[in-house]
Write a structure and sequence with these properties.
415 residues, mainly alpha, Growth Hormone, Chain: A, 16 helices, 81% helix, disordered C terminus, MFS transporter, transmembrane helix, transmembrane transporter activity, membrane
C-alpha cells in the first residue's frame, strides 16, 4: 500500500508547480507589465488565462474515466507527466516570446493553463481516493502549503530573476523547477488497484445537494478573498516599490507567512471547525482590505505598513481560510469520482476569480485603487455570515451522505 507521506509529498510537489505558474501569471506578470506602463484594464486581461481552470469540468469526466480504468492501476501519473512536459515547454516558449508581445504571451499562458488544469484533475482525484479520512488534514496542508510556496516562488523568485538576469532566464529557470517538482508525484508508489464498477459522471455530481452547497461556498469565498488582491501588485508598483523589492517580499515574506498561516489554519479547523475558521478569515480580510483602501485614499503611507497589509491579505489570511475551504471540498467529493467532484468546486473558484480579476482592473483604472479596495472590504464583511451558514450546511449534508454510503456498503460509521 502507498505510504500516506509519499502521497502527500507527491500532491504537495504538484501544487507547488501549479502555483508557480499561477504566481507568475497573476502576481508577477502584472507587476512586470505595469513597470512597462501597460494600462491596468489591459493587464486585467491576463485573467483570461483562468478560462481552462474555470471550464475544466467539461473534460473532467473523460479524464476521470481514462484515469480510472475498470481494472488495473490508475493512470494518474501518465496524465501528470504529459501535463508537466507541456507546461515546461510552454514556459520556455514564453521566455523566448518576451513580455512585450502581449497577445502571443497570453495564448501560451492559456495553453499552459490547459495542461496544468488537466493534470490537476488527476492530482486531486488521486489525493481524495488514496488518503483515508484520518490523513485528509495532511492532504489539505500539502495543497494549501504547496500552493503558497509555489505562489511565492512564482511571484517572488521569478521577479528577482527577471530584475537581475532578464525575462528569458527567469522563464527557463521556472520550467526546470516545474519538471523537478513533477517528478515527486510521478515516481511516488502506485496505490492499490481495486476493481471499479462506478462510472464517473458529471451528472451524478450536479444532482447532489451537498455539491450545490459546496459550489455556492466556493463562489462566496472567492468573491471575498481573491477579488480584493487582484490589483495588489500594480498598486504596490504605483506606490513606488521596485520589482526586486516586490519579488523579495512576495517570495520570502509570502512563503513564510502563507506556510505558517496554513499550519495555523489546519490546527484551528481541527479545534474550532471549518465554519468558524472561514468566517474568521473573511472578517480579517475585510480589515486588511480596509487598511489598503485607507492607504490608497490618503496616499503617502509608508512602505512598511503597505507591505504588512499586502502580506496579510494575499498570503496569511487567505491561507487561513483556504485550509478550511479545501477541507470542505474533500468532504463534498465522492471518492469514486473525486477528480470530477473536486474539479467542479475548483472551477467555480476559477470562474469567479476570472470575472473578478478582469473587473478589478477596470475598476482600479477608472475609479481608483481607494474605491476598489473599499468595495472589496465591504464584500468580505458581507460574505462572512453567508460562508458560515453554507459551511455548516455542507458539513451536515456530507456527513449524512457518508453515513448512507457506508450503510449501503456494510461499513460501520466512524471509521
Amino acid at each position: 500500500m502507498s505510504s500516506p507521506l509519499a502521497i502527500v509529498l507527491g500532491v504537495g510537489g504538484l501544487y507547488v508547480g501549479q502555483s508557480i505558474i499561477g504566481g507568475l501569471t497573476f502576481i508577477a506578470l502584472p507587476s512586470v507589465l505595469r513597470e512597462r506602463n501597460l494600462p491596468l484594464d489591459q493587464i486585467g486581461l491576463l485573467y483570461l488565462a483562468v478560462l481552462p481552470w474555470a471550464f475544466k469540468f467539461l473534460w473532467a469526466p473523460a479524464v476521470e474515466r481514462y484515469r480510472l480504468p475498470a481494472t488495473g492501476h490508475s493512470r494518474s501519473r501518465s496524465i501528470v507527466l504529459l501535463g508537466g512536459l507541456i507546461s515546461a515547454a510552454g514556459l520556455m516558449s514564453a521566455g523566448l516570446i518576451g513580455p512585450s508581445a502581449f497577445m502571443p504571451l497570453l495564448i501560451v499562458l492559456l495553453l499552459i493553463a490547459f495542461a496544468t488544469s488537466t493534470s490537476d484533475i488527476a492530482c486531486d482525484g488521486h489525493a481524495v481516493e488514496t488518503l483515508s479520512e484520518r490523513y485528509h488534514g495532511w492532504g489539505n496542508a500539502a495543497q494549501v502549503g504547496g500552493a503558497y510556496l509555489g505562489s511565492a516562488i512564482g511571484s517572488g523568485l521569478f521577479l528577482v530573476l527577471v530584475a537581475q538576469y532578464g525575462w528569458g532566464v527567469a522563464c527557463f529557470a521556472m520550467a526546470a523547477l516545474l519538471i523537478v517538482l513533477g517528478l515527486l508525484f510521478v515516481v511516488s508508489p502506485a496505490p492499490p488497484s481495486p476493481g471499479r464498477d462506478h462510472r464517473p459522471s458529471l451528472r451524478q455530481a450536479l444532482q447532489r445537494r451537498d455539491m450545490h452547497l459546496g459550489l455556492a461556498l466556493a463562489a462566496v469565498n472567492v468573491i471575498a478573498q481573491k477579488w480584493g488582491v487582484s490589483m495588489l501588485g500594480p498598486f504596490l508598483i504605483d506606490s513606488g516599490l521596485d520589482l526586486t523589492s516586490l519579488g523579495i517580499v512576495n517570495g520570502v515574506g509570502g512563503m513564510a507567512v502563507g506556510f505558517v498561516c496554513a499550519l495555523i489554519g489546519g490546527a484551528l479547523v481541527r479545534l474550532c471547525g471549518a465554519r468558524t475558521v472561514l468566517a474568521l478569515a473573511l472578517m480579517l480580510q475585510a480589515v486588511a482590505l480596509s487598511g489598503l483602501a485607507y492607504a490608497a485614499w490618503k496616499g503617502g503611507v509608508g512602505q512598511p505598513l503597505l507591505l504588512i497589509l499586502a502580506l496579510a491579505s494575499s498570503s496569511g489570511i487567505m491561507a487561513l481560510g483556504f485550509v478550511a475551504l479545501y477541507a470542505q471540498f474533500m468532504a463534498v467529493s465522492d471518492p469514486r469520482q473525486a477528480g470530477i467532484d473536486f474539479t467542479l468546486l475548483q472551477c467555480m473558484d476559477a470562474l469567479v476569480s476570472m470575472a473578478g480579476g478582469m473587473g478589478a482592473g477596470w475598476i482600479a483604472q477608472h475609479w481608483g485603487y481607494g474605491l476598489y479596495f473599499g468595495l472589496a472590504a465591504l464584500l468580505a464583511l458581507a460574505a462572512a455570515p453567508i460562508a458560515a451558514i453554507l459551511s455548516h450546511r455542507v458539513a451536515v449534508r456530507s456527513d449524512a451522505r457518508k453515513v448512507q454510503r457506508e450503510a449501503l456498503a456494510g461499513v460501520p460509521s466512524g471509521r
